[in-house]
Amino acid sequence: MVNSFLTAAAAQCRNRGAGSGTEVMFDTIILLGSALERAAFMTVLSTHNPDLTIIPVETLADLNALEPDTLAGARLIAFVTGVIVPAHMLDQLGFGAYNFHPGPPAYPGFAPAHFALSRRASEFGATAHLMAARVDEGPIVGVEMFSIPPGASVASLEGMAYARLAHLFWSLANRLATCGEPLPPLPLSWSGKKTTRRDYAAMCVADIGKDEPDRRIEWFGGQRSGMTPAMHLHDVEFRASRG
After folding, report:
1. Interhelix angle for 154-178 vs 213-220, to 10°?
2. Using CA atoms in the order 223, 106, 128, 201, what is the torsion angle rounded to 10 degrees?
3. Same domain as 125, residue 224
4. Which of 18, 20, 75, 222 has the fewest CB atoms within 10 Å, i.e. the most exposed one?
5. Does 221 share its domain with 103?
6. Range of the domain at 210
């Protein structure tokens, strides 16, 4: 009974007017992410909508290779990716683009788990949002929050956020796969400073006091994007390394 209701509801919202007197059929999802995630999520989306065409992509070059007609009937879903989708491509997508960000609304931008621990945050989470021209600024459509356990490391916090993000995808997958209408926004806003690779690099290389080196290595010692913490003593740089 529930599946029949969902199927009927999906049929009512599968099409959307294109604004030019023609009707565009929502029939394609462009899935941007790693190969492992794409394989799992393609199965989930196809279960909800067997008629859906799913195009797996991983790079900006893959996106640029797509034809305008394909984009017009498509929705893009990005999951934990460093690819920045250009504004002109967002404009061409007939059914929007959604990003699954591995951090809460208070931590937009690069490496959110690292900065949350460095700021001694008490809670963390995962966010789904409509993509906009600027990274991590679009309307929020889903959030899952959790308390950060004592002694959490960057790796463990990222793992917990990833699990919540996967659950968030699962909870939104039916509507993403079956309904061309935009997902309703939540009454939430992004907050906090949007961190960048430059911010991360600045935290890796800094003049710091005697109590700080161990914490910097713990928070930023994962060699993300090839960057590792370093300490300056009398103009000499000491860079952390793993034995």
Report:
1. 30
2. -20
3. no
4. 20
5. no
6. 197-239
Using DSSP's 3-state secondary structure scheme, residue 124 falls into strand
Beta-bridge mates of residue 230:
205, 239
Beta bridge partners of 142: 128
Which is it for strands 53-57 and 28-32: parallel, antiparallel or unpaired?
parallel
Q: What is the CATH number of the domain that holds 107?
A: 3.40.50.170
Does residue 120 lie in a domain region? yes
What pLDDT does residue 115 have?
92
Instruction: Give kind and range of the element (H or E) at residue 88.
Output: helix 87-92
Spatial strand order of the sheet with 97-101 comes to 53-57, 28-32, 74-79, 97-101, 123-130, 140-147
Give the mean pLDDT per block of 10 residues along the chain (243 residues). Answer: 39 49 79 89 94 95 94 95 92 96 94 92 96 90 96 93 95 95 95 87 67 65 58 53 55
Does 183 fall in a domain? no
Q: What is the pTM of this model?
A: 0.78
Task: Give CA–CA dist 45/53, Å, rounded.
Answer: 10
pLDDT at 92: 96
How many domains does the chain contain in total? 2
Query: What's the Cα-to-Cα distance from 45 to each of 1, 91, 92, 140, 167, rounded to whole Å?
Result: 20, 23, 22, 21, 14
